[in-house]
Amino acid sequence: MDNSKIGHHISEQFNKELEDIRNKVLVMGGLVERQIELAIEAYTTGNMELAEQVIKQDNDVDLLEIAIDQECTQILALRQPTAFDLRLLIAVIKIIHEIERVGDKAERIAEMAIQLANSEIRISHHELEHMAQLVKGMMHDALDSFARMTVEDVPAITALDINVDREYDSILRQLITRMMEDPRNITRTLDILWTVRALERIGDHACYICEHLVYMIKGEDVRHLGQEELEKIVKVSR
Amino acid sequence: MDNSKIGHHISEQFNKELEDIRNKVLVMGGLVERQIELAIEAYTTGNMELAEQVIKQDNDVDLLEIAIDQECTQILALRQPTAFDLRLLIAVIKIIHEIERVGDKAERIAEMAIQLANSEIRISHHELEHMAQLVKGMMHDALDSFARMTVEDVPAITALDINVDREYDSILRQLITRMMEDPRNITRTLDILWTVRALERIGDHACYICEHLVYMIKGEDVRHLGQEELEKIVKVSR
């Protein structure tokens, strides 16, 4: 575990507090990664117990966000941090919000799994699973970069979002064709569409986490910049 | 203008800084309210110039978010605020993020206006406009509560979200019926669906702004609580 950035405080207690926050973010992130996994498994296998579990556990994610948020605010009030420490706390508050939103998307997929369980309609799971793997990988790598407190992998992660969008468009086209061919099943097909859209949004949130991480480490706000600009800023040596 | 909460600092300069941030948030909020208005007008009248204007101005909203964010961080670093001032700054950082997301939704509606401009298909504007009025009113009242630094109207605002969801469901059902009856126009009908969905999300963001406001004023995190719990917390006398 690279403590080089966190472990430079004269106060041993302050180090511990920041380390504790970082660990809690990783626990929360791990929980949500698992939520995505279970939701997709519920969706593709029709395992309703898994779907229920995802929906139930969303509460744990919410509570973790509130707890970490509170801890960050307390440290801001008591330690009055500046520079990297301040950016770390601000970035964490934003990052946990993204993670919470990803948890909501996993819950949504689980809900769709339940809706679709009794339906005969199925989309080729191959493509949906591929898209799920892609966004799950982006989330994993974004959280891993946060754990290692490094931005070097950020451009590679955000670059993948184009692939996600491409797969989303491709599946959307298929679903539209299917709706045209079988209008009686439009409601069901829309449920699949919501699932695919939730996956697409998970990719976006992974990119947002990366942006907050760049702000934290580099002190630069890279939101709304293009991929090229982002790469330039990340590459500037520290 | 009620400065009772902001204007209590010994440092005149600090008062000015907080006042400046509050004013910038209101400018940003006003800009986004106008974006929603113009996007809906572009959508219902087919005025493409308006739609282009909304899309172009989204950049101003993004830049305002970045500027206010930076200002908050600077104050956190230099003034090391505690209690209400700290909560104000944290809440502002979160509120401007919600406003920015609402701006994105307005942009999305404007894009759909352009997509649909050359299409013969139209949904009854009556219902869509009613839903638009509803969420625009929620945004307006949420921003107004922020301007007045009061939470008394919050329960009334968040309670409206049920109506928004109900209208969304009703329009969704209509759209599904229309897709079944006229499968050739499914792509166009989906564009209408995205618009209605964007409106529904604006209602959610207005509620989130209210939640951040309650945290700011009352010091209580009311996210993920039900309407009843929220009302209780808001009603407790300060």
Brief rundown of the structure:
The structure is a homodimer. With about 240 residues, chain A is mainly α.
Give structural notes:
2 copies of one chain form a homodimer. The first copy, chain A, is mainly α. Chain A has a single domain, classed as Methane Monooxygenase Hydroxylase, Chain G, domain 1 (Up-down Bundle), CATH 1.20.58.220. Helix content of chain A is 82%, strand content 0%. Chain A contains 7 helices and no strands. Chain A is globular, with a radius of gyration of 20 Å.
Keywords:
about 80% helix; Methane Monooxygenase Hydroxylase, Chain G, domain 1; mainly alpha; about 240 residues
CATH-level-4 superfamily name of chain A: Phosphate transport system protein phou homolog 2, domain 2
Q: What's the helical proportion of residues of chain A?
A: over 70%
Residue stretches of chain A low in confidence (pLDDT < 50, at least 5 long) are none
Per CATH, the architecture of chain A is Up-down Bundle
- Name the chain pair with the biggest interface and residue counts per chain: A-B, 29 and 29 residues
CATH class division of chain A: Mainly Alpha
SS element count, helices of chain A: 7
User: What's the CATH topology name of chain A?
Assistant: Methane Monooxygenase Hydroxylase, Chain G, domain 1
